[in-house]
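Re: that backbone. Tokens:
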């Protein structure tokens, strides 16, 4: 396991190879479908640094942030993948998400000394612990239907009990 600390030096990225396992430490940025194209526009007019965004040696995690936590979104969405070359040119060393990328994006990353790493989504962990599923209500709603699941060992944290919450 290679420990990566931000800001990331170009030499660190140069030493990494496909299949290496890494652990990221330090400050990272998050963004997805709406935020990343806006950031690229700010780079284009020179106002990103004036807003306190320092991209040289940075990490961008393709995610949204909610009280429930974070998990990677698909990096190959047009808005996200399309932003990666410009962000790499601006100094982003590591793009963190999930899903495959087009070859031209992979080449653009290499040109600018950036890499793309994937992080397993929590759903991948839970999928291995889901023994069966069946729709019990609202089947017409597809994946928004109500399901009954049989599970074995879903990890969980009590978030609220006895009038207390971890979010307050």
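Recovered sequence:
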């Amino acid at each position: 396991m290679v420990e990566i600390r931000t800001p990331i030096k170009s030499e660190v990225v140069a030493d990494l190879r496909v299949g290496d396992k890494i652990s990221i430490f330090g400050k990272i940025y998050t963004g997805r479908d709406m935020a990343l194209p806006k950031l690229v526009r700010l780079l284009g007019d020179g106002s990103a640094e004036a807003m306190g965004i320092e991209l040289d040696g940075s990490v961008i995690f393709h995610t949204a942030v909610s009280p429930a936590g974070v998990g990677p979104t698909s990096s190959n969405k047009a808005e996200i993948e399309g932003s990666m070359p410009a962000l790499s040119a601006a100094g982003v060393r590591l793009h963190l998400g999930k899903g495959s990328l087009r070859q031209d994006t992979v080449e653009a990353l290499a040109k600018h000394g950036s890499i793309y790493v994937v992080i397993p989504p929590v759903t991948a962990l839970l999928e291995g612990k889901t023994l069966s599923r069946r729709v019990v209500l609202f089947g017409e709603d597809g994946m928004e239907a109500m399901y009954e699941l049989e599970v074995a060992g879903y990890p969980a944290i009590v978030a609220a009990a006895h009038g207390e919450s971890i979010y307050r």
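The chain has a mean pLDDT of 82. The chain has six helices and ten strands.
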